[in-house]
């Protein structure tokens, strides 16, 4: 049987184990980035590699996983631990990348960078999901996208450029062939009416969804 081409990258942000997260990572291979290794306990995962400068890794965590191969890097390096971990996954044949712990936490610069990098990875043809368990993010590029969201859950579309030809179907606030100027808030806080279908003519965006937040019901 061939090895899985789905890799879960354990990052340093917040992570809560949910049914959706468990289903998404089932059968995945794992690579940990520095202090993101703590999520291996939550996910009952056995990472095949642990990379980073280990500046955010407590000694007890280092001692808890003595058998996981470590690939250390100096603190003064040209990429984040997360980007290094993703590169290692790609070198090992990754097609789908789940960035677990990509959002929240103490470092908003890292969280924003993960979103930007997620878009870049999607443009290169990778299937990308960023997740904290409670919140999920998926790149939206020209073409069609369907999100399996429960009715009543919240989602927003954040444009990282002007968006043209935007369609939103099966949502409380549908749009048809819409032009969203860069920085506009029109697509914040929509409500799914079940699986949401999206289409984009041009531009780059991120869909942020809260599948367990049913406050829109």
From TrEMBL:
Q: Which CDD domains match?
A: TPK
Q: Which InterPro entries match?
A: Thi_PPkinase, Thiamin_PyroPKinase_B1-bd, TPK, TPK_catalytic, TPK_catalytic_sf
- For this entry, list what GO says about its biological process: thiamine diphosphate biosynthetic process; thiamine metabolic process
Matching Gene3D superfamilies: Thiamin pyrophosphokinase, catalytic domain
Main enzyme class: transferase
At the top level of its lineage, which domain of life is listed? Bacteria
SMART domains found in the cross-reference section: TPK_B1_binding
Gene Ontology molecular function, alphabetical: ATP binding; kinase activity; thiamine binding; thiamine diphosphokinase activity
Q: Where is the Thiamin pyrophosphokinase thiamin-binding domain?
A: 143-206
Q: Which residues form the signal peptide?
A: none
Q: What is its EC number?
A: 2.7.6.2
One Pfam annotation, family name? TPK_catalytic
Q: Does the keyword Oxidoreductase apply?
A: no
Q: Which UniProt keywords apply?
A: ATP-binding, Kinase, Nucleotide-binding, Transferase
Q: What is this protein called?
A: Thiamine diphosphokinase
